[in-house]
Amino acid sequence: MIVAEQKPLAEIKSMLGDAERILIVGCGTCVTVCFAGGTKEVAVLGSALRMSLQLDGKAKTIDEVVVQRQCEWEYIDPLLPELDKYDAILSLGCGVGVQALAERFSGKRVIPGLNTKFMGMPTQAGEWEERCQACGNCVLDKTGGICPITRCSKQLLNGPCGGSQNGHCEINGEVSCAWQKIWDRMNTLGLQEQLLTVQPPKDWSSSRDGGPRRIVRDDLQLPKEYQD
Amino acid sequence: MDTAPELKIVAFCCKYCAYKAADLAGSMRLQMPPELRIVQVPCTGRLDMVEVLHAIEEGADGVMTLGCMPGDCHFLQGNLRARKRVEYVKRLLDDIGLEPERLEMFNLSSAMGGKFVEYATEMAERIRKLGPSRLRRSANSEPRGYREDHLEFGMRKLELENETAPPEESPVCHHNTVG
């Protein structure tokens, strides 16, 4: 899932600028389960903003709404009739959601209320860790299900390096050495021999290094002449 | 004539300890501060940050949450969750520009009628010193009603607009199992 964190209140306030009527739009998917932009977080931010602005002597209208997903046109289109009432949208969706709103409602300023951080998972209640960097060419079968791109600080494909100490990365005593984990896991699976195969340098063109990415699935699209 | 505004302190009391303690205080004929407005909740863990914030937004000068002693929560960990949420909201109040001391959590058991009054009095004295919430002073209007309409205008309403309209008549056959 996409994991994001709310921006500090002061930063959000400063981004509102001259807008007098603001709609906070939350999202019911990723940012709900990382407790950054769901129904509750929208309500808390709405209340906090109203109070803070009132105390500053600059009370604004702050309304709240949550959509199921901000990253799909069908889920954000129902917002359109409401938007005449507002000068700006404060999105508590991930970066994708903010951009979808901005593109669909191009006449309205859309302000990001979150910092989108990474793709990861909750390793325990209240803690999320990065697990995938969307490199575009998954090698998890070669590393026992542990990603060397995400979890190795040097993104090595033939680790470990000399900085691996007691299962930890030399950058920080709290960061595990991914290649120690990979070695342990491949041993458990009885596949440690496979690690003797040297992997060639990674082709990064499938990653963001190759430019903004796009996928087209012809099997899911109507012929051009039938598309809207 | 005294024109000082009447102070309001909302006290969210858990049903199993705090509310019973308040009840006991009443039976003991102990004097409670007049500012107190008690709200019973099944457990302080039921409280979300929103409820606490809305209480303050709607004009409460102080908010207390009173729950069971740590380790003795009727629902095991509800009071521990509440404590963390209260700490979070206190930091948020500081960011908002209000005094974090206006919000406090206390722990007590149902036998502690005297303790309830002690905490309530302590909080009342604290709020009297702080004075009415600046929100009340900077707004000259009556407290606005709780915004249920925002929850209406929330997820549920927009999902319905996406779904196809439900059939006029439910096709479900209701079985009466009166036997």
Give a brief rundown of this model:
The complex is a heterodimer of chains A (228) and B (179). Chain A has 228 residues and is α/β, with parallel strands linked by helices.
Notes on the structure:
The complex is a heterodimer of chains A (228) and B (179). Chain A has 228 residues and is an alpha/beta fold. Chain A folds into two domains: 2-118, Rossmann fold, CATH 3.40.50; 134-210, no CATH class. Chain A has seven helices and seven strands; from the N terminus they run E-H-E-H-H-E-H-E-H-E-E-E-H-H. A four-stranded parallel β-sheet of chain A has the order 3-2-4-5, with helices on both faces. The longest helix of chain A has 17 residues, at 39-55. The mean pLDDT of chain A is 95. Chain B is an alpha/beta fold. Chain B has a single domain (9-152), classed as Rossmann fold (3-Layer(aba) Sandwich), CATH 3.40.50. Chain B has seven helices and four strands. Chain B has helices at 18-27, 49-57, 78-96, 113-130, 134-138, 148-152, 155-162, and strands at 9-14, 36-41, 62-67, 103-107. Chain B has a four-stranded parallel β-sheet, with helices on both faces. In chain B, helix 1 (18-27) crosses helix 4. Classes of the chains: A alpha/beta (228), B alpha/beta (179).
Shape of chain B: globular
CATH architecture of the largest domain in chain A: 3-Layer(aba) Sandwich
Count of distinct structural domains of chain B:
1
CATH class division of chain B: Alpha Beta
Tally the helices of chain A.
7
Q: Percent of residues of chain B in helical segments?
A: 40-55%
How much β-strand is present in the residues of chain B?
5-15%
Beta-strand fraction estimate of chain A = 15-25%
Taking strands numbered 1, 2, ... along the chain, how are they ordered across the largest sheet of chain A? Answer: 3-2-4-5
What is the gyration radius of chain B calculated from CA atoms? Answer: 21 Å
Structural class of chain B: alpha/beta
Q: Please provide the ordered H/E string of secondary-structure elements of chain B.
A: EHEHEHEHHHH
Strand order of the largest sheet of chain B: 2-1-3-4
How much is the average pLDDT of chain B? 83
Tally the structural domains of chain A.
Answer: 2
| Biggest interface pair, counts | A-B, 30 and 26 residues
